[in-house]
Design a protein that fits this description.
With about 260 residues, the chain is mainly alpha-helical. α3 crosses α4. The termini are far apart. The relative contact order is 0.09.
Length: about 260
């Protein structure tokens, strides 16, 4: 029977027949997604299934989850991924711990915490300020828990080690959603201490959608308050307290004049 042109009644009847397979491949039905391609590759893997791998090369047809066309994960997938995740987590923990030891001795040990008295706050920095400082960007990307430990210690909110461990567990584990909420609360406290205004909704949005940028910006602001210039690798230069406060006052006056004159 030819099915070209207008749909003949025989073809319509065939199309209306109940499929014998359990899986919709997009144009036909099979018992499972693996049987959908039938040697024809990704072109025959649609409907309930998605093609995983190269479109014109090696790949396989798997059941889709319906969420953004991603493959449906099975318990076997989790069993396979868990040992890799645990290994990566342990190795990352050890590397981060060793680096934190060095960072605390060479950087944090040279700093003084932010004080409330005789403190002139520097001007707030834009969200993407860390991209203008390659050293700050590198620290934030590769050593985010260490940077947070330094920030929280500098603001007097917690010790360096509790800050590092706390941030590491909330960033590199399934507790990340909780970490976003906790980070929003603490980041607002840091901003209050350094004299910058931030609302609760702003803190939540920054933590949820752009945490690394927000941490990098916060790190630079905290460093400015302490008069510290931290560069790779673990190098720090600290300006005297008096000169740092005078510089902040000068920048505040200049910014106010610029706003009033514009």
């Amino acid at each position: 029977v030819s099915c070209a042109g207008p749909l003949p009644s025989s073809c319509a009847a065939a199309a209306m027949q109940t499929p014998t397979g359990n899986v919709n491949c997009g144009g036909h039905f099979e018992a499972n997604c693996a049987a959908c391609p039938g040697g024809n590759g990704a072109a025959w893997c649609h409907g309930d299934c998605v093609w995983v791998g190269e479109l014109l090369g090696d790949g396989r047809c798997e059941m889709g989850s319906g969420l953004l066309g991603m493959p449906k994960l099975t318990p076997q997938d989790f069993d396979t991924a868990l040992p890799w995740w645990v290994t990566l987590f342990v190795v990352t923990s050890l590397v981060m711990f060793v680096y934190a030891l060095v960072y605390k001795r060479k950087v944090v040990g040279e700093l003084e915490r932010i004080t409330d008295h005789m403190n002139v706050s520097a001007e707030p920095l834009p969200l993407f300020a860390c991209f203008q400082k390659p050293h700050a960007a590198l620290y934030t990307v590769f050593c985010l828990p260490v940077v947070l430990g330094k920030n929280y210690w500098s603001a007097g909110l917690m010790g360096f080690w509790p800050g590092c461990i706390f941030s590491f567990l909330l960033t590199y584990t399934p507790l990340y959603p909780l970490g976003v909420c906790v980070r929003a609360v603490i980041s607002k406290k840091v901003q209050d201490i350094i004299g910058h205004e931030r609302t609760w909704p702003q803190a939540c949005l920054f933590s949820l959608f752009c945490m690394p940028c927000d941490v990098g910006r916060e790190s630079l602001e905290v460093d400015h308050e302490m008069g510290a210039d931290i560069t790779c690798c673990c190098q720090v230069e600290v300006t005297s307290r008096l000169m740092n406060e005078l510089d902040h006052a000068s920048s505040r006056i200049s910014a106010a004049c610029a706003r009033n004159c514009s």
